[in-house]
Amino acid sequence: MVGGNASSVTDFILVGLFPEFQHSIILNFVIILIYILAFLGNLLLIVLIWGDSRLHTPMYILLSQLSLIDLTLTSTIVPKTASNFFTGKRTISWIGCGTQSFFFLMLGMSECLILTLMAYDRYVAVCIPLRYPIIMSLRFCLHMVAGCWIGGSISSFIHTVYPMHFPICGSREIHHFFCEVPVLIKLSCEDTSVYQLVVVVTSIVLLVVPFSLIIASYTLIFLTVLRMSSVKGRKKALATCSSHLTVVSLFFGPNIFIYMTFTSSHSPEQDQALSLFSNILTPMLNPLIYSLRNKEVVAALMKLMGRCGVS
């Protein structure tokens, strides 16, 4: 290797975030700011949930897992993107690309399952509240959380190892700001249509099916809420469920478009814009969406601030 920009023949080149954009330095500073806010916001939410015994319930345990996923997801993408931009070194090794792709897929797939569990938790709490302590026991919740992480890891491993071994005959330039399966497929010089069909089938299992279950759960919830005689109970149920539905829409919408359509049907700019929205902006919004309309989380925050004030 000669010089600072030399790289191995197996390295990939990450073009970066909107390379043709004239004010790219401003954009990257904004991305870093969003990352910092997302990191701190999700970290604070995790600390509040695990630091307050009143929040040691299935709903908040699942919420803490969502925050952990968002915190880790942004940390998988943004530091490398920022480092490449400010150092001018746009390369990423074959192992580095595979590692980034693995963690990105694992976290994304785990989030699909966690959001589905959160919808089921709300369905049981609203529609069959008397059986809630039995069905959504702490042990059951922890087992389901472990299942989400294990299922996401196994599926991610398969969908990382297989496309990383596709032969690349031409340019190793990735028109994206991180390593992701759809953009890696575009580099291959062999026919990948069969594998793309596998990706679509996997997306149906991990995106469309969970999304359908979530919609079904909330349809039943809203029908139950409409029959409630208590106005206060109705408002509380709608506030909690509307927050979750907002997060579900922000997450599933862009990902269904990216993974349910063939890679040739959308441009690199579309991939980047949707990934930026789903994987960087949404993790920053999630703590705000869940905390601002949640009295228990706000009370835990006030309690923490009170302790800090006394100290």
Automatic annotation (TrEMBL):
Signal peptide: none
UniProt membrane topology term: Multi-pass membrane protein
UniProt-listed InterPro entries: GPCR_Rhodpsn, GPCR_Rhodpsn_7TM, Olfact_rcpt
Keywords from the UniProt entry: Cell membrane, G-protein coupled receptor, Membrane, Olfaction, Receptor, Sensory transduction, Transducer, Transmembrane, Transmembrane helix
Domain of life: Eukaryota
Residue span(s) of domain G-protein coupled receptors family 1 profile: 41-290
Main localization category: membrane
TM stretches of this protein: 25-48, 60-82, 102-120, 140-162, 194-225, 237-262, 274-292
Pfam families associated with the record: 7tm_4
Subcellular location: Cell membrane
Family membership: Belongs to the G-protein coupled receptor 1 family.
Protein purpose: Putative odorant or sperm cell receptor.
Name the record gives this protein: Olfactory receptor
Organism expressing this protein natively: Odocoileus virginianus
